[in-house]
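ok so I'm stuck.
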Amino acid sequence: MGGFEITFSSTSGKDLIIRGIVEESGSFRLARGRGKLEIPTGEYRVTLAPIAIGETTPAPKIQLPEKYTNTDHAVITKTVRSGNNEFTIEIETETDR
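replied:
not stuck anymore, here's the structure
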């Protein structure tokens, strides 16, 4: 499921926000600032938002519940550790119900 911006927001109280784009394959790579790939370790809340990619690919029309789109209500948390990290993130859309 591609066409989403994925955001990791630190739970440490710091304004640390890391973003990436979910590809059609479901994979994503996070970066902060101007493409810095080194992500500080710690716990993060994870949210998703539909995003248009360029002028030719519109944002997906999938309706996501607020628990996936609002940082204050985020139900997904992930812990970033030193070194390479791989995460599996499963979501339920409104049409899955």
